[in-house]
Amino acid sequence: MNKNFFAKIQDLLLKKEKRVEEEIKAVEEDDPVMSDALAEATEPGTDSWKTDAHTQLAAMKQNLTDLLGRIKKALVSLQTGKYGKCETCGRAIEPARLKLMPETLICMSCSKKKSK
């Protein structure tokens, strides 16, 4: 993998980081538990709906936060020259995998073992 490859990956990661941060903000804004507009609602089922919506949005936010953490970790590893090495086995992560998922921290072989 050459310098140009890593520059493209860094650009992908930075764009993805910005998009994920925007998605986290949107999820937070959509959360009915955080909205004052629904605070006065007294219709039957409102509390149940708010709880369900909040639970789903909290799970979505957690997934996005986890992804953001992997993106930031990948950006740090790019800066330190450790990017592209599997955290589990230490071998090089496949370039095609890095292009598809630039935030990935493990190679395909270790990913398959982990998912079993």
Automatic annotation (TrEMBL):
Pfam families: zf-dskA_traR. GO terms for molecular function: zinc ion binding. PROSITE patterns: ZF_DKSA_1, ZF_DKSA_2. Residues 81-113 form the Zinc finger DksA/TraR C4-type domain. The keyword Zinc applies. It comes from the Bacteria. InterPro entries: Znf_DskA_TraR, Znf_DskA_TraR_CS. The keyword Zinc-finger applies. Keywords: Metal-binding, Zinc, Zinc-finger. A zinc finger (dksA C4-type) spans 86-110. This is Zinc finger DksA/TraR C4-type domain-containing protein. It comes from Candidatus Daviesbacteria bacterium RIFCSPHIGHO2_02_FULL_43_12.
